[in-house]
Amino acid sequence: MTDDLKVTVQRKGDAAVLYTRGYINNLGGEEIASRAYELMDDGIRVLILNLQETKIVNSIGISILIEVIEKMTEKEGRIAFCCLTPVIQKTFQIMGLAQYAKIFPDEASASQELGLPAAS
Amino acid sequence: MTDAVDRQVELTLPMVEDIELAVIKTAADLARKVGMGSVEIDEVSHAIIEACINAREHACCADERIYLRFLGGITTDGRAKLEVWIKDRGVGFDPSKVKPREPGKTDAPRKRGWGLQIMRAHVDDLEINSGADGTTIHMVKFSERRRDD
Question: Is the pTM of this model over 0.80?
Answer without folding.
Answer: yes
